[in-house]
# Entry
Amino acid sequence: MFSKDTYIKRRQQLCKDVEKGLILVVGNSDVAFNYQANQYTFRQDSTFRYFFGYDIQGLIGVIDVESGEEYLFGEEVDMNDIIWTGPIPSLSERATEIGVKNTGNIKDLRNLIDKSVFAGRKVHYVPPYRAENVEFIADLLHIDYRFVQAYVSTELIAACVKQRSIKSEEEIVEIEKALDTAYTMHTTMMRMAAKEGTYEYEIAGTMEGIALAGGGPVSFPIILTTHGEILHGHDHSLQIKKGRMIVSDAGCENVMGYCSDITRSVPVGGKFDARQKAIYESVLSAQLLAAKLSRPNVKYSEIHLAAVEQLGGCLKELGLLKGDIHQAVLEGVMGLFMPHGLGHMMGLDVHDMENYGENYVGYDKKNVRSTQFGLASLRLGKELQEGFVLTDEPGCYFIPALIDKWRAEKKFMDFINYDEVEKFKDFGGIRIEDDLLITKNGCRILGKPIPKTVEEVENEMAK
Amino acid sequence: MFSKDTYIKRRQQLCKDVEKGLILVVGNSDVAFNYQANQYTFRQDSTFRYFFGYDIQGLIGVIDVESGEEYLFGEEVDMNDIIWTGPIPSLSERATEIGVKNTGNIKDLRNLIDKSVFAGRKVHYVPPYRAENVEFIADLLHIDYRFVQAYVSTELIAACVKQRSIKSEEEIVEIEKALDTAYTMHTTMMRMAAKEGTYEYEIAGTMEGIALAGGGPVSFPIILTTHGEILHGHDHSLQIKKGRMIVSDAGCENVMGYCSDITRSVPVGGKFDARQKAIYESVLSAQLLAAKLSRPNVKYSEIHLAAVEQLGGCLKELGLLKGDIHQAVLEGVMGLFMPHGLGHMMGLDVHDMENYGENYVGYDKKNVRSTQFGLASLRLGKELQEGFVLTDEPGCYFIPALIDKWRAEKKFMDFINYDEVEKFKDFGGIRIEDDLLITKNGCRILGKPIPKTVEEVENEMAK
# Structure
C-alpha cells in the first residue's frame, strides 16, 4: 500500500468535492467460479482500493462528509478462524494503517445508514457492477435491487473522476512496474510467434503466466489471435500459420493494482511480407503521430481524427482509398478500417473508471460523444490534462462482413476502392498500442520500449 | 465436445430419474471483474456442460420430463454483431449439434415456464451459486431472490449425482489430459523450489501459466505456500527460504472442462532434512495405504480412518504420540495433525458437484457425516463404486494456534506428547495428493506418475 497520508488526503479531497451526505464505498467480495467455496481470484473494487487501500474481501468504507468521520466496516476474525487462516490483524488495526478512526461490523453499518437516512441525509455510491454488491446496496438502502443503478450519485462520480484522472508520481511508478511485466509478456509472445504450428492458447497462457508470476492478474482477458479483425473475440483455439498477423493485446496489474495495456502485432514466422509491412507501417505512422500530438489542452477526439487521417493517407498510397482524405475522415470513411477509438484512460482499471460510465470519464459538457460509426467508439474525447495516463492504439482491420455490408449499401463509393479492399479480406488486422503519460508540454511513452518497428520486431522474433 | 449421443443419453437418463416436471438447467454468464465490460475468464456451469455440452455464455437448457421435449434457449446473434464477433452459428445449429430439437429466446423461455407452472407442473433446478443466476431464476420463477435456494429440487440433485458420480471411459481420458498438464505444473514447481529466494507468486504464477497454456484455467486458486499449516490460505507473497517445506496444491481444467488436483510437498533448496523426511514419509505411507484400500463397496470414511491411523503410528514412532493409536483415532486425536478429510470426488468440478451440497455427493442415508473435528471435514464418506474418481490427500500440519488451544484445554493428554509436538511449531505442513479411479477390484492412480518419493522429489529438484 501507499503511505497512510496518501489515503487520508484522497478522502479529504473527496469530502471537499462531494460537499454533503454520506459516502459509501463497497469493496468487493469473492465470486464463485463453479461452486460457493471455489472462487475466482479476488479482485478488489478500484474505488475502494483508491480511497481505502486494502486488497481484501468484505470491507466497506464510509465517509461522513460534513463531520469528516471515517469508518471501516467488516466482520472481525473469529479466534477459531485463526486455526485455518493463521494470524490476522483486527479491523481496528487495519483501520489505523489507513488513517481511519472508526470500525464496526455490518450491523453497525446498517445502524449508521438507517440513522443517517432517517435524518434526511443522502448516501452517495458509485455504480456497482457485481450482482453481489447490487444486492448488498439494495438491502442496505432499502431499494429494489433492480433500481440500484437508478440512484447512483453523479456528485460522487464527478469527484472520483476528478481525482483519479490525474496520476501522482507514485502511481506512475506502479504503472511502469506493470509495464515491465508487459515487456516480458510481449517479447515472449514475439519469440513464440516465430514458430508456426503453435496454438494461440499456448502463447496466451504463457503470457498470462508471466503476468501472474509478476504478482498480479492480467488487466483484461488477453486478446491473442490470428484473426485480429474479430474485435470482440477472446478465442485462442487456433494453430498459428504463416501468412497471418498475430494481434496480441495484453497487459497486467501489478501488486498495487495498477495496469498496463500494450498491443503488438507480429507476423507468424517472424518475417513481415510486403503487404503486412505496408499496413503495419501505416498503422505505426498513425500511432507515432498521435503520441506526437498528445499534450495538455488538446482534445483526444481531434488526435483520433488526425491519427485516422494519417492512416487514411497511407491507405490512399496503397490504392485502397481515393479522393480527399481529410473529407473522407470527416464523413466517417475510416470506420471501415478502424471501427474503434484511438484510446482510453488507464490507471487502477485498464479502462480507467469505466464502471462510473464512459461519458463521465472521457467526455464533459463541452465535449460530447460523436454518434458517427468509429468515432462513436472513442472512450476518451475530451481535452487532455497533465497527469492523464491513456492508451494510443490505432489499428487497421479488414472485416469481411463489414466490407460486404458497406459495399452492398454502396457506402462512400467516392472514397473507397472496394475492388482493392476486397483483396485484403484474408488479411486480418493490425493494432499497435502504447501507454502515454501527459506531461507539462507533451507526453511520455511509459515503460521500457517494447520492440515496435518492423526491424525491431523481426529482430526480437529471431532470438 | 463429446459426440451428440453422449449428451442425448445423459438427458434421457435424467428424464427417467426425475420422473416428472420440467428440468431447468441455467448456464453461466460472464462475471464483471472491475467493470461491466471487463470480465473474468468465462467458466461454464458444470451441470449445463454435462447435459448440454456448450462452453458458451447465456444458454439455458430445458427438458420436459413427461413429453421428452428438449429446448435450448438463448439470444440469437444479430447480423450487426458479426462485424465484431466474426461468423457465429445460429442457436438452432447449436441445438442440432447436441441433439436438441427446440430453440427459443428468453421470452420464449418465460412463456414455456409460465404455461407449465400455471398448469401445476414443477420446475426442477439445482442450487445456483452465482448471484446473477439466482436473480435470473428468481425473476423467471417469480420467487424472491433470497428464497431461491429454498426451492431447489432434491430429485434433480439426486439424479445428477447418480450419473455424474460414475465416470465414463471418455471422461477418464479427459481427466488424464488434465493430469498431464498437472505433471508439468508440479515438476516445474519442484525445479523452481530448488532456488532459495524465489517468491511464492513467481512459482504459482508460472504454474498457472502452464495450466493456461495447456488450454484450461486452474481448477481452483493455486495453493503454493511455505506455510502449509495455514489451510485456508491463498497468499503467495513470501520469499521461499531453506528449512521450510513448500506445499503445492494445484490442478487445472482441460479444454473439455475436466479437472486434475495434485499436491506435492517439497523442501526449499532441494534436500529434505531428517525431520522433514520423517514427517514426509509418514504422510506418504498413509497416502499409499489409502490407495491400497480403495476399492468398490468400501466406505471412504473407513479409509480415512485407516490412513490417519497409519499416520498416527508413524507419529508415535517419532515420539509425538503415545498410547493406543487405534483408540486415539477413534477419539479424534488425529484432528490435531490433519484437520481435513482424506479426499473428495473429482470430475467437471475439482470438488465434484459441490454446488449441489456436499452431503448429497459424499454421503447417503446409510452414511451420515461425522461431527468429530477432522472427520467432520471429510467430503466423501460413503461406499466407493467402480467409476468414482476421487482424491487421496492426507497431510500432517503443525498449527501453532491449534496446538496452543488443545494444550490449554488439556485435550488428549494421554495420547499427545505436547512437549514434543511444540518442537514442530516452526515446521509448517506436508500434504501429498493423487487422483484415483475406482476400478472393478481396486483403484488406479490416474495420470503419469509425478515424483513422489523422497528420492524422486530430490532428483527432480536437482534437474
Remarks:
- Chain B has a mean pLDDT of 96.
- DSSP finds 16 helices and 15 strands in chain B.
